[in-house]
Specification:
The protein is mainly alpha-helical. Helices cover about 60% and strands about 0% of the residues. The protein is built from 10 helices and no strands.
């Protein structure tokens, strides 16, 4: 029997950034619908973050990002993982936990991204992260070429807010790539 679970269930725990996601629902749908939209997202997209420890929820998704980047482009993987020194993309932690709601300044673009995530499989956040990393390959390479510093390249290029996603054109390119 499947347990009926709501955001009021005692087995759900708050995590840092959850309020960022819920605020998008409340600001977009108003109080009543926002509450129910947030509940659906909590049950079907964010459930692992609300019920499991990060070692069981965030870390596997993060490692999947690196796995897919490596499958797509070995050179890019070496760049973002500092030649394998990082086992997961720490720079993408807030992306995954907040579905980018902590990182995008243009609210319309954030709403577009939420539409995409809500209409897709919950794993789509991983593919979107890979698409964003691929989109920024040239900027990463340029930074490393200028500074010679691979270890901080991702933290500099992907610092928040992620300015490139404030462009509708760039957002659509990354969505298409995902």
């Amino acid at each position: 029997m499947v347990k009926n679970q709501s955001v009021h269930a005692t087995d759900l725990k708050y995590y840092q950034g959850y309020h960022d996601v819920m605020s998008v629902f409340l600001l977009t749908l108003d109080t009543n619908l926002g509450y129910y939209g947030g509940e659906v997202a909590s049950r079907f997209i964010l459930n692992d973050f609300l019920t499991l420890e990060f070692e069981e929820s965030l870390i596997p998704l993060s490692k999947m990002v690196f796995f897919l980047v490596r499958k797509e482009d070995e050179d890019l993987y070496n760049l973002v993982s500092d030649h394998g020194n990082y086992s997961f993309p720490m720079f993408a932690t807030s992306w995954i936990l907040t579905l980018f709601s902590h990182d995008i300044e243009r609210f319309g673009n954030l709403q577009r991204l939420f539409d995409f995530f809500l209409s897709s499989h919950p794993i789509m956040i991983v593919y979107f992260c890979v698409g964003l990393i691929k989109y920024n390959k040239a900027a990463l390479e340029e930074y490393v070429e200028q500074t010679g510093d691979v270890s901080t390249a991702t933290f500099v290029v992907f610092k928040t807010p992620i300015r490139c996603l404030n462009s509708e054109e760039v957002l659509e390119k990354v969505l298409e790539s995902a």
